[in-house]
Amino acid sequence: MQWLVSVHLMSLQVSWIVEDKFVKKSFQPETLQKIEREKQKYPDKLSALLPTLWWAQAEFEYFDTETMDYIAEVLGISKIRVYEAVTFYTMFHRKPVGKYHFQVCHNIACSLLGAEHIIQYLQKKLKIELDEVSKDGLFSITRVECLGSCGTAPVLQMNDRYYENLNESKIDFLIEELIAGRIPETL
Amino acid sequence: MIDFDYKNPEKIVFKNIDIPGMRYVANYRKKGGYETARTVIAEWKPDDVIEEVKKSGLRGRGGAGFLTGLKWSFIPKDSPLPKYLICNADESEPGTFKDREILRFDPHSLIEGMIIGAYAIGAHQGYIYIRGEFAQEANVVNDAIEEAYKEGVLGKSILKTNWDFDLHLYRGAGAYICGEETALIESLEGKRGHPRNKPPFPAVQGFNQSPTIVNNVETLAAVPYILKYGAQGYRKYGTEKSAGTKLFSVCGLIKKPGVYEVPMGISFKRFLYETCGGPLEGREFKAIIPGGSSVPLITREMAESEECTMDYEGFQKVGTMLGSGGVIVYDNSVCIVRALEILSRFYAHESCGQCTPCREGTGWLYKVLHRIENGLGHPDEIDLIVDIANNIDGETICPLGDAAAWPVQSAVKNFRSEFEYHITHHTCLPGTAKY
Ligand SMILES: Cc1cc2nc3c(=O)[nH]c(=O)nc-3n(C[C@H](O)[C@H](O)[C@H](O)COP(=O)(O)O)c2cc1C
Ligand code: SF4
Ligand code: FES
Asked: Which pLDDT score, from 0 to 100, does residue B224 have?
């Protein structure tokens, strides 16, 4: 960092280049290759935006302006395209979420089978409010709409995985496992 | 009378769902998989495929029930533009979870259906648009696509014919509206999921301004069966106007929720009691939404009436629709106002905001219903919510507006006294719970 600052003082131009190389976010080289391949699948490269946002979220966790601008640059599209998409789709995070992010369905089937209770139980157990990250950075809880798994309600999605037919003891087990660093296949 | 063993329902067109290991191409091929697609490409003319699907009477399983063969025939023959076939795997309509079964247990039937459909409409490129939440299902489908490429089932000169077909999976990222076909197309173009005005219809101007067909997962996955056994073979099941079988996903307060395949035209009452086990111990049914949250709710009496058969016409006779086949069951413990409040919250959350009646109206509906449910409603407000609903219904770019209005109109029509009770007593009807 020291070195960077000194360069900064010498010339604005140089500091820009240096920042570009060393400070700015950048995708893993494999991801950049994946993005290139993705573009080939569509008649217009803009289609590659959503897949790129998924990869970006996996690498950078959430989208701040800098990240969005970087994505626009990588895809060669205008920044507004990226802002539009990130703010429209609810699964893209605009602020950090927990390492284990619980998305609890509160739509009709899940509600009839106890979703509100599940949400309260989770909050009490983890001692966090909705849409807040626990102090250790491990957990966050949010409400979501129907997950398309209503026959096994109540349901929550933890990161990429569904946990179904939830009850208190299943939640207890899930959280114990996650704290121990294990992600159960099912409950 | 339609033949159906209510007590022991077995899958017919979708029997692969119950066979372990069918997600792997080798197992699928062992059962004769991809033979139909190969025969069709090698021996059939595209127009004959469309004709056969028309004759089969297959109607879109995504909700609207439009004749699939007829839709395919709308692709302009003389257009120099590339054609696209898109599978709608967005499955986000509350109460609907049938496509997920095909995606995770039988992805090759879907791929084979897409190959046949693409050949029929002259598309060399297809996409499967899957909702973002279905990450595990996306993995299964992606693996299936990869295997299919390795086997020569996808790509250049597929199945040793001279037909090329590329297929890719595209993940959404959380937006119910992207299930609407033109919003889906926008999303696939990398944009916000904002529905387009129709016309032009996608068959003329869809993805990348080119002729495009969007079909539901279940619709496409039924196509190999139809071509294998012929339109007549498919018509062995169902009724004249509602041909074939349909997947129903059953949820809510009922003994055996799940996904069932039934020949269309069977008795809804017997299905609910004999196939799905009836109500929970000590309860009775109160109201049912038979086709996903967007269709009107009907009372138990209507659902159990003789005329309510499980087909497009039967549900229409009792004032509702078959929709997506997502059956949501309310029993006598359910507060109708609370249930409606939950659905209205959903539509307010999911409105894309393009049309004023939908953007503003869905928000108002939720706010007023929230007030009524919490005992703060005013006597005028029952008519107010119906008035708001009437002013959204039919006044918007896409049917999400109607979908938000119908549950309100039907709940007030069938259960008005429960709304009145909330307003006069400031609480739910005794014996019902605020879930
Ligand atoms: C708000 C809204 C949501 C929809 N969601 C879905 C969906 O999740 N899956 C689906 O197949 N069709 C959905 N549809 C219907 C599609 O617009 C379209 O009619 C369907 O995909 C056509 O396929 P089909 O003819 O095979 O049914 C939705 C429609 C609306 C208005
Ligand atoms: S009806 Fe609602 S969801 Fe559909 S386009 Fe209009 S605002 Fe968007
Ligand atoms: S209502 Fe919760 S998964 Fe559908």
From this structure: 98
| B189/A89 Cβ within 8 A | no
Answer whether B183 touches A (CB < 8 Å). Answer: no
Give me the residue spans of the domains in chain A: 2-88, 100-179
**How many Å apart are CA A19 and CA A27, to the nearest integer?**
15
Mutation target for B interface from A146, A161, A162: give the one with most B CBs within 10 A. Answer: A146
Give this complex's ipTM. 0.96
- Mean of pLDDT over chain B: 97
Q: Which pair of tokens denotes residue B302?
A: 């209507």
From the list B94, B170, B330, which residue is nearest A107 (CB)? B94
Phi, psi of B399 (to 5 degrees): -75, 0
Distance from CA of B240 to the nearest CA of A (A): 30
pTM recorded for the entire structure: 0.95
Bridge partners, B258 (sequence order) = B250
Q: What's B262-309 look like in SS3? A: EECCCEHHHHHHHHCCCCCCCCCEEEEECCCCCCCCEEHHHHCCCCCE
Residue range B282-335, pLDDT digits in tens: 999 999 999 999 999 999 999 999 999 999 999 999 999 999 999 999 999 999
User: How many A×B Cβ pairs under 8 Å?
Assistant: 142
Q: Under 8 Å CB-to-CB from B36, ≥6 apart: which residues? A: B112, B116, B224, B227, B228
pLDDT tens per residue across all 187 residues of chain A: 334 444 444 444 444 444 444 557 899 999 999 999 999 999 999 999 999 999 999 999 999 999 999 999 999 999 999 999 999 999 999 999 999 999 999 999 999 999 999 999 999 999 999 999 999 999 999 999 999 999 999 999 999 999 999 999 999 999 999 999 999 999 9
Angle at the Cα of B151 from the Cα atoms of B150 and B155, rounded to 5 degrees = 70
Class of domain A100-179: alpha beta
CB distance from B223 to chain A under 8 Å? no
Mutate to test the interface with A, among B91, B191, B217, B324 (most CBs of A within 10 A): B191
* Of A89, A112, A161, Cβ closest to residue B252: A112
Q: Which domains does chain B have, with CATH numbers?
A: 25-234 (3.40.50.11540), 245-331 (3.10.20.600), 336-425 (1.20.1440.230)
Cβ contact, residue pair A90, B91, below 8 Å: no
Cα–Cα distance between B375 and B369 in angstroms, integer? 10
